[in-house]
């Protein structure tokens, strides 16, 4: 990514990094009553710029006709990043690196052909649909911001016309069969990650949800946990009962001196990449054919459905939004009913 800082207009204020301050090194200054005064400290340049923009209440102090693509992105980060999660920030930063041919262009003069050329660069560099989609999301945020602050008129929002490659499904998802699940259970005496895969599977969580579970979210005595983070509104703060046959694994993991449930043998929190590596290695060692972590979620959905669990309970456990207004607003499945649905699944390995 371009490391050039946004040149602030005269009278807007200044941001300076102070080497002696570790926690909040970015000092924000503003001329007040003829003197330059410190008005705050922030942890990052982007948050400092956001503070300064909020203090001035007028991003239009930047010349709309002269502002470059890279300078606009700096303003967008200051506005947007405090409102989104760190992993989303990271994905946007990675996508932005692919748009480097646009950095020095005056934003108001960029044409759809320029945007398509940037997307073509992504394709030519071997990146596929997901990277192109994320870059398009970055461009959409930039054009939304530019319209909001009158850098361009609404009709100049050309981000809606960007074409990207079609999503190619290179791998058809399949569920774990009973024989494979039994192999995992039989390996749990000696294999940490076999336990973790079964814990993940019998929650039906998305991988990102499972990896974000903290020990404080698990209520062992009542046999349930709370999913705090999810990509959907229906998935956030939902209750999932713990499957009885995985309880010994939860007891073992909770006894460890770690903040998160998903950790390696040294207690280090697993991100998706490290979890996936251990997931794949475990299946190879146990001679179980290839699966993805997300297929654990599909597996529980299938197991619940095959056990004739209540459809509303299944949706609650999986965090699916309901299109049925009665289910959404008037049917309240309590923890006992969710446990009843989960307990229909019994493994005789």
TrEMBL record:
Name of the featured protein: Tyr recombinase domain-containing protein
Keyword DNA-binding: yes
Keywords noted in UniProt: DNA integration, DNA recombination, DNA-binding
CDD domains hit by this protein: INT_ICEBs1_C_like
One Pfam family here: Phage_integrase
Family in the record: Belongs to the 'phage' integrase family.
Domain of life according to the entry: Bacteria
Domain Core-binding (CB) as annotated: residue spans: 70-147
Cross-referenced Gene3D superfamilies: 1.10.150.130, Intergrase catalytic core
Domain Tyr recombinase: 171-343
């Amino acid at each position: 990514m371009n490391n050039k800082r946004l040149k602030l207009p005269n009278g807007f204020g200044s941001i300076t990094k102070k080497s002696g301050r570790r926690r909040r090194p970015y000092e924000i200054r503003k001329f007040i009553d003829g003197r330059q005064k410190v008005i705050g400290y922030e942890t990052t340049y982007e948050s400092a710029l956001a503070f300064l923009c909020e203090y001035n209440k007028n991003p239009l102090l930047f010349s709309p006709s002269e502002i470059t693509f890279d300078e606009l992105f700096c303003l967008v980060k200051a506005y947007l990043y405090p409102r989104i999660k760190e992993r989303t920030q990271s994905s946007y930063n990675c996508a932005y690196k692919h748009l480097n041919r646009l950095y020095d262009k005056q934003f108001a003069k960029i044409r759809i052909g320029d945007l398509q050329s940037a997307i073509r660069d992504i394709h030519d560099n071997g990146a596929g649909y997901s990277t192109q989609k994320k870059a398009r999301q970055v461009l959409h945020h930039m054009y939304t911001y530019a319209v909001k602050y009158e850098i361009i008129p609404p009709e100049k929002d050309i981000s809606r016309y960007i074409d990207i490659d079609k999503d190619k499904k290179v791998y058809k998802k399949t569920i774990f069969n009973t024989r494979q699940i039994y192999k995992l259970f039989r390996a749990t005496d000696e294999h940490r990650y076999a336990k973790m895969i079964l814990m993940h599977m019998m929650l039906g969580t998305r991988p990102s949800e499972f990896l974000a579970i903290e020990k404080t979210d698990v209520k062992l005595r009542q046999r349930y946990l709370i999913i705090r983070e999810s990509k959907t509104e229906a998935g956030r703060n939902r209750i999932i009962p713990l499957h009885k046959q995985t309880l010994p694994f939860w007891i073992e993991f909770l006894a460890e001196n770690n903040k998160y449930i998903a950790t390696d043998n040294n207690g280090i929190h697993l991100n998706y990449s490290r979890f996936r590596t251990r997931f794949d290695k475990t299946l190879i060692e146990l001679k179980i054919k290839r699966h993805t972590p997300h297929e654990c979620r599909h597996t529980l959905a299938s197991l619940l459905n095959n056990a004739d669990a209540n459809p509303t309970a299944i949706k609650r456990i999986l965090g699916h939004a309901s299109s049925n207004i009665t289910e959404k607003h008037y049917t309240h499945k309590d923890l006992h009913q969710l446990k009843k649905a989960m307990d229909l699944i019994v493994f005789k390995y």
